[in-house]
Amino acid sequence: MSVRLEVWGDYALFSRPELKVERVTYDVMTPSAARGLLEAIFWHPGMIWRIDKIHVLNPIRFSSIRRNEVDSVINVSKIKAMAEGRGDGGAIYTSESIQQRASTVLRDVRYVIDAHFDMNRKRMSPADSAEKFQSMFMRRAAKGQYFHHPYFGTREFPAEFRVWEGESEPVGFEQGHRDLGYMFYDFDYRNPAQPQPLFFRAALDNGVLDVASAEVRS
What is the pTM of this model? Predict the structure, then answer.
C-alpha cells in the first residue's frame, strides 16, 4: 500500500557519517530519515516502511550554524539517585560536557515522499491488514497527529507535514541529472547485535531521488 506525503521545514541536517568532528549534511534527505519521519506519524510492529522516491521541491541551499552538542553519556547512577530522592538536584550535564560545534545544514527544505509498506509476521490481531494501516496513516497525517514530532535529521529541526494534495506528479526543483555520490541508505538489522550500515549511489534526475531502483551495498 502506497502513500505520498509532503514535508517541509526551515532547516535540516542529514549528517554524513564520514565527517564526524563537524556535522555536514547530505544534499538531500536520506531514505532512513524519510522512514523515520513516516514512523513518527504511524508505526506498527506488523508493518515495514519502504521508501520509493524523494521529490526535492526546493533548490538545495546550505547554511553554516553553530550548535551546542553533548559529548558524554548520561550517568545512569546519577539519574537513579535523583529519581529515588538521593540526588542533590544538580545538572545531569556540566559545562565541560557541552561543546559548541559548527554544522553545515540545509535551509528551506521541502520534499514529497513516495513510500509503501510491507506486512510482516508481527501482526497483533487477525484484523490487521494493509488497508487498515493505510487508512490509519492517512487519517493521522490529515489531522496532523504523530507519536513524536517528526524532524529532519535532528530534533532541533522539526518537520511539518501534510498529505500531498496535488493531482499531478510533484515537480522537482531542477531538470537534468545530478550525481550525489554515495549516500547512507539505512541499517541492516538482520543481526540485531551488530547492525550493518548500507549505502547506495545517489542521484537526482529532474529533482527526484529514485530509491526503489537503487543498488544497496554495505
Answer: 0.84
Structural domain tally of the chain? 1
For residue 198, the SS3 value is strand
| Partners of 116 in the β-ladder | 2, 50
Q: What is the pLDDT of residues 134-169, one digit of tens each?
A: 999 999 999 999 999 999 999 999 999 999 987 789
Integer-rounded Cα Rg, in Å, for the chain is 19
Q: How far apart are CA 218 and CA 216, in angstroms?
A: 7
The tally of CA atoms less than 13 A away on the side-chain side of residue 129 is 5
180: domain CATH number is 3.30.70.2660
Give the domain range for residue 26: 2-66+107-217
Q: Confirm whether 100 is domain-assigned.
A: no
Write the DSSP string, 54-116. EEE-S---EEEEEEEEE-S---HHHHHHHHTT-S----SS-GGGEEEEEEEEEEEEEEEEEEE
Spatial contact of 163 and 138, defined as CB atoms under 8 Å apart: yes
Cell matching residue 131: 488497508
Q: 60 lies in a domain?
A: yes
7 near 159, Cβ under 8 Å?
A: yes
List of E strands, the chain: 2-12, 23-24, 47-56, 62-70, 98-119, 160-163, 177-188, 196-205, 208-210, 216-217
How many CA atoms lie less than 13 Å away from 213 in the CB half-sphere? 6
Cα–Cα nearest to 28, from 141, 212, 149, 152 = 152
